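Amino acid chain
________________
===
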Amino acid sequence: MSNQKILIDPFNPQPKLILKAAGLIKKGGVVLFPTRCLYGLGADAFNPKAVDKVFRIKQRPYNKPVSVLIKDTNDLHILVKHIPSTAKCIINYFWPGQITIVFEAKNTISGNLTGDTGKIGIRMPEHPVAFSLVKEANSPITGTSANISGQAGCSAISDVQLAEKVDILLDAGQLKGGTGSTVIDVTTSFPTILREGSVSAKNIFAALEKR
């Protein structure tokens, strides 16, 4: 891959830089970009070859799905079978933000995106760069962390071991770090926390009790 490293303003990302990175995504490329806590790998979620690149770069087992970022809730209708009331509650309280919601994926969604689980994890990012990127791409993009599968995520570009394998790096400096988003599965009778991250399970269940 032809690799480029670009410094980007984390609070007010330069439109020309976002346009350039989004253009690469539309062409099937992979972009390394910042989220609130960790750097991620962005590719067109509807391009199976691009998603496959992400798996190869991360050395990720194909039975482990990757999460997807969306620009607004309208994108949910092209990705998921239905939106449970519990999911609507979580969305209203916490999106955009650090919660990945696991839904039942539509049958049209590629198996390499879901890991053939029939489920898909979706988040609406709050970080200005991540949000601007998915909005300009005008398509859901992958939001998996930029690390070798099984290793810790990276909050600094200097720690990213796979930087040479992507098409472009959007360097926003040192990020917050931590565990990343909280992952909650709403396909069960009552939502199940799969991973507790930036948002506590206590806060999520408190919101659900107010429905």
Notes: The mean pLDDT is 94. The helical segments are 15-26, 48-58, 85-94, 111-114, 128-137, 201-209. The domain at 4-209 is CATH 3.90.870.10 (DHBP synthase). The chain is about 25% helix and 20% strand.
